[in-house]
Design a protein that fits this description.
The chain is 38% helix and 20% strand. By secondary structure, the protein is α+β, with helices and mostly antiparallel strands. It has one domain (2-203). It is elongated.
Length: 204
Protein backbone atom coordinates (compact mmCIF):
# COMPACT_ATOMS: atom_id res chain seq x y z
CA UNK A 1 0.00 0.00 0.00
CA UNK A 2 2.79 2.38 0.86
CA UNK A 3 4.55 1.60 -2.44
CA UNK A 4 1.31 2.29 -4.35
CA UNK A 5 0.95 5.71 -2.74
CA UNK A 6 4.56 6.55 -3.61
CA UNK A 7 4.00 5.60 -7.24
CA UNK A 8 0.85 7.75 -7.43
CA UNK A 9 2.69 10.66 -5.87
CA UNK A 10 5.54 10.27 -8.35
CA UNK A 11 3.08 10.22 -11.27
CA UNK A 12 1.47 13.45 -10.08
CA UNK A 13 4.86 15.16 -9.80
CA UNK A 14 5.86 13.99 -13.29
CA UNK A 15 2.55 15.17 -14.74
CA UNK A 16 3.01 18.56 -13.08
CA UNK A 17 6.39 19.03 -14.73
CA UNK A 18 5.20 17.68 -18.09
CA UNK A 19 1.97 19.69 -18.25
CA UNK A 20 3.53 23.02 -19.42
CA UNK A 21 5.29 21.25 -22.27
CA UNK A 22 2.11 19.44 -23.26
CA UNK A 23 0.18 22.73 -23.27
CA UNK A 24 2.80 24.35 -25.49
CA UNK A 25 2.59 21.43 -27.93
CA UNK A 26 -1.23 21.40 -27.99
CA UNK A 27 -1.75 25.13 -28.35
CA UNK A 28 1.18 25.39 -30.74
CA UNK A 29 -0.51 22.81 -32.96
CA UNK A 30 -3.71 24.86 -32.83
CA UNK A 31 -1.92 28.04 -33.88
CA UNK A 32 0.00 26.42 -36.70
CA UNK A 33 -3.22 24.84 -37.96
CA UNK A 34 -4.74 28.33 -37.97
CA UNK A 35 -1.78 29.61 -39.98
CA UNK A 36 -2.17 26.89 -42.60
CA UNK A 37 -5.90 27.59 -42.82
CA UNK A 38 -5.30 31.33 -43.18
CA UNK A 39 -2.81 30.80 -45.98
CA UNK A 40 -5.31 28.65 -47.87
CA UNK A 41 -8.05 31.25 -47.39
CA UNK A 42 -5.89 34.08 -48.74
CA UNK A 43 -4.86 31.98 -51.73
CA UNK A 44 -8.47 31.07 -52.48
CA UNK A 45 -9.56 34.72 -52.15
CA UNK A 46 -7.01 36.10 -54.60
CA UNK A 47 -7.47 33.29 -57.11
CA UNK A 48 -11.24 33.55 -57.05
CA UNK A 49 -11.13 37.33 -57.50
CA UNK A 50 -8.88 37.10 -60.54
CA UNK A 51 -10.88 34.19 -61.90
CA UNK A 52 -14.13 36.16 -61.73
CA UNK A 53 -12.78 39.40 -63.15
CA UNK A 54 -10.89 37.76 -66.01
CA UNK A 55 -14.15 36.39 -67.47
CA UNK A 56 -15.29 39.81 -68.70
CA UNK A 57 -13.16 42.10 -70.82
CA UNK A 58 -15.15 45.19 -69.81
CA UNK A 59 -16.00 45.48 -66.12
CA UNK A 60 -18.24 48.07 -64.56
CA UNK A 61 -17.48 49.62 -61.19
CA UNK A 62 -20.52 47.85 -59.72
CA UNK A 63 -19.32 44.46 -60.98
CA UNK A 64 -15.88 44.91 -59.43
CA UNK A 65 -17.46 45.90 -56.12
CA UNK A 66 -19.78 42.89 -56.25
CA UNK A 67 -16.84 40.55 -56.93
CA UNK A 68 -14.85 42.03 -54.04
CA UNK A 69 -17.80 41.61 -51.71
CA UNK A 70 -18.43 38.06 -52.91
CA UNK A 71 -14.89 36.74 -52.48
CA UNK A 72 -14.43 38.34 -49.07
CA UNK A 73 -17.83 37.12 -47.87
CA UNK A 74 -16.84 33.54 -48.71
CA UNK A 75 -13.84 33.98 -46.41
CA UNK A 76 -15.94 34.68 -43.31
CA UNK A 77 -15.18 34.77 -40.42
CA UNK A 78 -11.50 35.22 -41.36
CA UNK A 79 -12.53 38.24 -43.42
CA UNK A 80 -15.57 40.11 -42.16
CA UNK A 81 -17.20 43.18 -43.64
CA UNK A 82 -18.96 45.62 -41.37
CA UNK A 83 -22.70 45.70 -41.79
CA UNK A 84 -23.16 42.14 -43.04
CA UNK A 85 -23.73 40.45 -39.69
CA UNK A 86 -20.06 39.67 -39.15
CA UNK A 87 -17.96 41.62 -36.67
CA UNK A 88 -14.82 39.50 -36.23
CA UNK A 89 -11.44 40.48 -37.69
CA UNK A 90 -12.86 43.52 -39.50
CA UNK A 91 -9.60 45.43 -39.10
CA UNK A 92 -7.14 42.66 -39.93
CA UNK A 93 -7.44 42.24 -43.71
CA UNK A 94 -7.20 44.15 -46.97
CA UNK A 95 -7.81 43.07 -50.57
CA UNK A 96 -6.64 45.06 -53.62
CA UNK A 97 -7.77 44.50 -57.20
CA UNK A 98 -5.62 45.79 -60.07
CA UNK A 99 -5.61 45.69 -63.85
CA UNK A 100 -2.46 45.70 -65.95
CA UNK A 101 -3.50 47.11 -69.30
CA UNK A 102 -1.88 47.54 -72.70
CA UNK A 103 -1.36 51.07 -73.97
CA UNK A 104 -0.03 51.24 -77.53
CA UNK A 105 0.79 54.94 -77.27
CA UNK A 106 4.55 55.38 -76.76
CA UNK A 107 5.31 57.02 -73.46
CA UNK A 108 6.99 56.37 -70.13
CA UNK A 109 5.91 52.72 -70.30
CA UNK A 110 6.84 52.25 -73.94
CA UNK A 111 10.33 51.06 -73.10
CA UNK A 112 11.94 47.80 -74.27
CA UNK A 113 12.40 44.93 -71.90
CA UNK A 114 15.73 43.15 -71.65
CA UNK A 115 15.05 41.02 -74.72
CA UNK A 116 13.92 43.98 -76.82
CA UNK A 117 10.18 43.19 -76.74
CA UNK A 118 8.02 46.31 -76.45
CA UNK A 119 6.51 46.97 -73.06
CA UNK A 120 3.42 49.12 -73.22
CA UNK A 121 1.77 47.74 -70.12
CA UNK A 122 0.86 49.94 -67.19
CA UNK A 123 -0.93 49.54 -63.87
CA UNK A 124 -4.54 50.67 -63.57
CA UNK A 125 -6.26 50.83 -60.21
CA UNK A 126 -9.15 52.92 -58.96
CA UNK A 127 -9.30 54.05 -55.35
CA UNK A 128 -12.48 52.02 -54.88
CA UNK A 129 -10.91 48.75 -56.02
CA UNK A 130 -10.05 47.77 -52.46
CA UNK A 131 -11.84 46.15 -49.57
CA UNK A 132 -11.00 45.97 -45.87
CA UNK A 133 -9.64 48.18 -43.10
CA UNK A 134 -6.05 46.92 -42.81
CA UNK A 135 -4.87 49.45 -45.40
CA UNK A 136 -1.64 48.51 -47.11
CA UNK A 137 0.21 49.69 -50.22
CA UNK A 138 0.17 47.38 -53.22
CA UNK A 139 3.35 45.41 -53.71
CA UNK A 140 3.14 45.55 -57.50
CA UNK A 141 3.05 49.34 -57.85
CA UNK A 142 0.71 52.30 -57.83
CA UNK A 143 -1.89 53.41 -60.35
CA UNK A 144 -0.31 54.66 -63.57
CA UNK A 145 3.09 53.09 -62.92
CA UNK A 146 4.81 51.09 -65.62
CA UNK A 147 4.43 47.35 -65.24
CA UNK A 148 8.08 46.93 -66.15
CA UNK A 149 9.02 48.74 -62.93
CA UNK A 150 7.56 45.86 -60.92
CA UNK A 151 9.89 42.87 -60.87
CA UNK A 152 7.06 40.34 -60.67
CA UNK A 153 4.95 41.97 -63.37
CA UNK A 154 7.91 42.42 -65.71
CA UNK A 155 8.48 38.67 -65.63
CA UNK A 156 4.78 38.01 -66.24
CA UNK A 157 4.36 40.31 -69.25
CA UNK A 158 7.75 39.69 -70.83
CA UNK A 159 7.28 38.44 -74.36
CA UNK A 160 3.45 38.69 -74.19
CA UNK A 161 1.62 40.05 -77.21
CA UNK A 162 -0.25 43.34 -77.05
CA UNK A 163 -3.87 44.13 -76.22
CA UNK A 164 -4.07 41.80 -73.25
CA UNK A 165 -5.41 42.54 -69.80
CA UNK A 166 -3.91 41.11 -66.62
CA UNK A 167 -6.06 40.91 -63.51
CA UNK A 168 -4.23 41.00 -60.19
CA UNK A 169 -5.62 40.43 -56.70
CA UNK A 170 -3.58 40.97 -53.55
CA UNK A 171 -4.56 40.01 -50.01
CA UNK A 172 -2.94 41.32 -46.84
CA UNK A 173 -3.62 39.97 -43.36
CA UNK A 174 -2.58 41.09 -39.90
CA UNK A 175 -2.38 37.80 -38.00
CA UNK A 176 -2.96 37.62 -34.28
CA UNK A 177 -2.70 34.46 -32.14
CA UNK A 178 -5.93 32.86 -31.03
CA UNK A 179 -7.26 34.78 -28.03
CA UNK A 180 -8.50 31.50 -26.57
CA UNK A 181 -4.94 30.26 -26.34
CA UNK A 182 -3.76 30.97 -22.77
CA UNK A 183 -0.14 31.10 -23.87
CA UNK A 184 -0.67 33.36 -26.89
CA UNK A 185 1.90 35.81 -25.55
CA UNK A 186 4.51 33.07 -25.46
CA UNK A 187 3.64 31.77 -28.93
CA UNK A 188 3.24 35.20 -30.47
CA UNK A 189 6.92 36.00 -30.73
CA UNK A 190 7.57 32.85 -32.78
CA UNK A 191 4.67 33.32 -35.21
CA UNK A 192 4.55 35.56 -38.30
CA UNK A 193 2.25 38.54 -37.83
CA UNK A 194 1.81 39.47 -41.50
CA UNK A 195 0.57 37.39 -44.43
CA UNK A 196 0.43 38.26 -48.12
CA UNK A 197 -0.85 36.46 -51.19
CA UNK A 198 -1.19 37.49 -54.85
CA UNK A 199 -2.73 35.94 -57.96
CA UNK A 200 -2.45 37.08 -61.59
CA UNK A 201 -4.79 35.94 -64.37
CA UNK A 202 -4.41 36.97 -67.99
CA UNK A 203 -7.18 37.75 -70.45
CA UNK A 204 -6.81 38.05 -74.20
Amino acid sequence: MKLSRQQKGQSIVELTFAMPLLLVLVFGAIEFSNLIDLNLILTHTTREMTNLTSRDRVLTEAEIQNYLNAVTDTAKPTMCRDGVGCTQNTGQWYVIYTQVIYDSVPGPCGLPLNNGDPDYYRIRRMATWTKGSFVHNSKIGENGACASDSADLAITIKGMSGNQIFHVAEAFYDYRPNTLTPIEGFLGFALPDFFYDRSIFSQT
